[in-house]
Specification:
The chain is an alpha/beta fold. The chain contains 20 helices and 15 strands. The strands form 4 sheets. It has a 5-stranded mixed β-sheet. The protein has a 4-stranded parallel β-sheet with strand order 1-7-8-9. The chain has a 4-stranded parallel β-sheet with strand order 10-11-12-13. Strand 8, helix 9 and strand 9 form a beta-alpha-beta unit. Helix 1 packs across helix 4.
Length: 487
């Protein structure tokens, strides 16, 4: 399985304890709660007979007026969307949907359901009761924590420009050690969710460490910006050589990623295109991601325009045409490049898309929902013969590196798309996008022996649906024909 993202690490949750007991296990913690007949975590109530429901639905639950579920895994779907059908990127947010009831049969199933509703809450609660949980002031956390992006999920903003400013502030505290630790933790999370190959946009110039051979195959896309100063060709090639020096590339390849038309100059795009065509590098760029980007280029106004103008960016390319028209109309992208996001296109932009069918669009459903963007143009891209790949983007706008969840959310937003087609968006389509269709994204003679397995009892007709709906870490995986020592 494939992923397209940026890596970072760490996860943060908050909860308030309602007990003060000396307990040893999660199950004894829950059992102690049940002895009080009714117990509550967050917005849910659970009872002695292993029922769980939204606390505000207590009266309806007493009248048996709620929709009944009997499997603990159903809690994952319940926690995914709010009452209006909007994706919930933060599971601890006070917007859990109403109208459901879980009727379970054991303390073990109760534990599983609560973990889906409030991930890590029981562990934090138990640590707090054991007096092993120490609070840290937010400012101190921002100043030292290694996964500097994950914390921004807790400081959500609908203003993309403000979001960028928050990230820039946090990056000032990032060292090479922080970055490498975050990459290691990110690769570990990817492995847990069955990723065998990943396209990672490397936004930090630290040299590559030696990762275990059974880590996912990584295509390192060098993220390039020259918003403040121009990048010389010699410096770019030298940075790439330093990045790769002394490291085996058996499980790693490289690509180039000029960040976006608002942070990378036309000259930089032209040089990247030259390098890609001469040395056969894949290329990725963020394009048409936000309404603020469109407003900046087309109209020459807006918060992003003012922010970048304040940084000293040359704004002479603004107020003329859309970012899509700039890059594709001027032929600044090599054929077959990956266009990440593609959310805001003018009607005239579709003419360029119609004439550039060999590009590949990368859609990140959970990040899309995080920013509450309008519906993704999947149907129109398909109409023009442009393939769509699914990715996660970074943990600055996502709470996991889990392509199963990305597929699930995509199907929720586009229920008429078939499961086999969605499956190709994380396997065959990304492989084709980087010229690896003969080696990746399929099980066939001559392809890499990269495999994962999930539990399944059923017929072939339901196999794709079972894969997409999978909700647990992967227990079995193979990289390059080799199994991890613990399998």
């Amino acid at each position: 399985m494939y992923a397209i993202l940026k890596l970072a690490a760490d996860r943060y949750y908050l909860m308030t304890p309602t007990l003060s007991l000396n307990l040893n296990t999660f199950h004894t913690l829950l059992q102690s709660c049940l002895e009080k007949e009714l117990a509550q975590i967050g917005q849910v109530t659970f009872t002695r007979d292993f029922r769980i429901f939204h606390t505000e639905d207590a009266e309806v639950a007493a009248r048996n007026g709620l929709r009944i579920y009997t499997e603990p895994e159903a809690a994952g779907e319940i926690a995914r969307f709010d009452d209006e059908g909007q994706y919930r990127p933060l599971k601890s947010a006070p917007n859990l949907r109403h109208g459901w009831e879980l009727r379970l049969s054991s303390i073990e199933e109760l534990h599983v359901a609560i973990d889906f509703l409030y991930p890590a809450a029981l562990g934090l609660w138990l640590s707090l009761l054991r007096k092993r949980l120490v609070g840290t002031p937010l400012r101190r956390t921002l100043a030292r924590q290694s996964g500097m992006y994950r914390i921004t999920v807790r400081t959500r903003t609908n203003c993309f420009t403000r979001w960028i400013q928050n990230l820039n502030s946090l990056k000032r505290f990032c060292t090479d050690g922080d970055y490498l630790a975050a990459v290691r933790m990110g690769l570990e999370e990817l492995s847990r969710w069955g990723i065998t190959s990943v396209l990672n946009i490397a936004s930090h110039p630290a040299p590559l460490p030696r990762f275990p051979l059974l880590s996912p195959r990584v295509w390192w896309f060098f993220e390039l910006m020259d918003v403040r100063s121009r990048i010389r060709a010699e410096a770019l090639l030298g940075t790439m050589a330093e990045f790769l020096s002394g490291h085996s590339m058996e499980n790693s390849k490289v690509g180039l990623a000029p960040h976006s038309p608002y942070t990378a100059s036309v000259a930089l795009y032209r040089f990247v295109k030259f390098c890609a065509e001469k040395y056969i590098f894949p290329v990725s760029t963020h394009l048409a991601e936000t309404s603020e980007e469109l407003e900046m280029f087309r109209d020459g106004v807006g918060s992003l325009f003012e922010f970048l103008q304040g940084l000293g960016r040359n704004m002479s390319d603004c107020g003329k045409k859309s970012p899509v028209a700039l890059l594709l109309g001027e032929k600044l992208m090599p054929m077959g490049a990956l266009l990440v996001h593609m959310n805001y296109l003018d009607e005239d932009d579709w003419t360029f898309m119609h004439n550039h069918r060999d590009f590949h669009v990368v859609h990140c459903p959970k990040t899309h929902a995080y920013f509450r963007r309008k519906k993704f143009h999947f149907d129109r891209f398909k109409q023009y013969g442009i393939t769509t790949c699914l990715g996660t983007d970074s943990l600055a706008s996502n709470d996991s590196l889990n392509l199963f969840e990305e597929m699930q959310l995509f199907l929720h937003e586009h229920p008429y798309v078939s499961e086999p087609e969605v499956f190709k968006m994380v396997t065959a389509h990304p492989a084709k996008a980087i010229g690896q269709a003969h080696r990746l994204g399929k099980i066939a003679p001559g392809a890499y022996a990269d495999l994962i397995a999930i539990p399944y009892i059923g017929g072939e007709a339901d196999a794709y649906a079972a894969i997409i709906s999978h909700r647990h870490p992967i227990a079995w995986r193979m990289i390059h024909g080799t199994l991890p020592p613990d399998q």
